[in-house]
Amino acid sequence: MPVFTRRFSESPGPGDPPSEAVSQTPRAETGSEAASEPESASASTTPATGGVPVTPESATPEPGAAARRATPGSRLARLSGITHLRTRHPEATRVLSWITTALAAALVLGALLLPNTLPAVEPRSFTRIPAEAIIGAVLVLGLPHRPRQAVAVLFGLGLAALTAVNLLDMGFNEYLGRGFNAALDWDLLPDAHAYVEDTLGGGVAIAAAVGAVVLVLLLAVVMVLATLRLSGLLVRHRPRAARGALIAGTAWITCSALGLTLFGGPIASERGAGALRVHAQRTVESLRDEAAFVKQSKADSFGNTPPDQLLPDLRGKDVIFTFIESYGRSAVEDPVMAPGVDRTLDTSTKALEKAGFAARSGWLTSATYGGSSWLGHSTTMSGLWIDNQRRYRTVTAGDHLTLTKAFQKTGAWDTVGVMPGVQKGWPEEKWYGLDKVYDAFDLGYRGPKFSWSTMPDQYALEAFQRRVHGRKHDKPLMSFVILTSSHQPWAPIPKMVGWDELGDGSVFDAVQKAGNKASDIITDTTRSRQEYGKSIQYSVTSLTQWLQRYGTDDTVLVFLGDHQPIARVSGERASRDVPVSIVAKDPKVLEKISDWDWAEGLKPDRGTPVWRMDSFRDRFLKAFGSTPHPS
């Protein structure tokens, strides 16, 4: 009798499946006709009849009574056909339910234990006891129905956000050698979209952007459904769930207190909470850093130096500052890439010596890694450590003296920028102190793009010679040149052609068509490393041959890398160092930096001093006679 009474008196609450009440009806005692009757018309029993079914007072049910007595859960089940499916295929339904629950549990545990770097995504990383899962189970078991559902939804959304952040961390660590910064890095997403568009095409870029949005939304929906399902399961089996949570909590505390490990990692995990805590701290520190950097950028050791006391020892010289994209220390020392690059540097050194030039080379530690080249450019020129986009915006909005602007301030030089990678408005030209900027559309190029790079370096340098350097000037030139052919994905790579054959760049059509496809290189680490090395050889060769061809007794060339290539090319735990060289014919120029202890030639030695990139401006200004007058 209690079994039959429970069926009517303990109907499931909203959100709880009705299967528990239905399953307690003894199907064996009902005939085929009774089994086919509506659930609401079942007979009740009383002690007076000894358990024999007695029909209600009215044998004919009141219209709509069955619908009123049915629970919200059972009505939903009837509408969706679930009840019919369970009746016809009970075993299959049960197996499907188990599989769905197992997948929900795997999804939640996987999100809580997911590392934030690709190399760490191994089976052993998921053999942990997550504290967050235990706390979540305890909350679910102790809350009423509606608060329980709200907590489950919020927990699911939190897991979706955690997973998205971990995936962003993986991408940033793989390409930029650092984790994602929620306070600073959203500005990089449009640049990433533009890079994909330039490299793989507009269709791929749009598909990638739409796919990313759909993935995030789908992740949120699936995570919420998983946490709701698991919370309902825990409540339906409350006694066993409570015992399980107690056992798991005791095990976690014990493993944590004893420092027990498994497969090289702690068994007691708080990976999810730890990841969110790190990102929160990173965000807070970034906001504090911004306020401190504003004050720092206003102080300048050469801010009030009179024009006649800036760079007096370079008067009359044509000075060229050139950045080679992604030219990092790995190109010179990595066993895969270095042999070819080192041969190019040695060959170029000898060729320059034959032309009357001498060179000295050292190392600078870049403020960026794997990308965001403009941070390296601005750090070198400003003497400030600019390692994120917010610092960059702060400093370029002010009037901090850049090395290039120091030349302009003297009035003794005309200043010009050659920026083949710039394809839109570039307001930074005023901050850099450039009288004129030649962007991708001002150099007369009519040839094909080479992936992200708008034109080969050889052509950009030849156009610089035709339009600027080779013309007569009333004053010497200070030129700021950014070369782009060694920009990732390093496919296709230009090849050297005869300098007299360059024309409008159409000669590169055949070279571009015969080159590798970016899609074939970008996903292959080994080939990426090989092609990266070739691209550096090409850029160095273009620049040094240009200097041999067009350099004069008054030419001073300073060239360096802006950052190391992406992490999967430069290698695990690679430094942030980049080579820097000064080349000149006039021996007095190199005498000014004799106390720098730089190596002779274009290749710095392993023992050559390493400076931070932000120290270069002041060292250069002082070496060539500038007098500090702090602002």
Automatic annotation (TrEMBL):
SUPFAM superfamilies: Alkaline phosphatase-like (SSF53649). The chain crosses the membrane at residues 95-114, 126-143, 150-168, 204-226, 246-268. Residues 28-56 have a biased composition (Low complexity). Residues 1-73 are annotated as: Disordered. It comes from the Bacteria. Keywords: Membrane, Transmembrane, Transmembrane helix. Gene3D superfamilies: Alkaline Phosphatase, subunit A. This is CDP-alcohol phosphatidyltransferase.
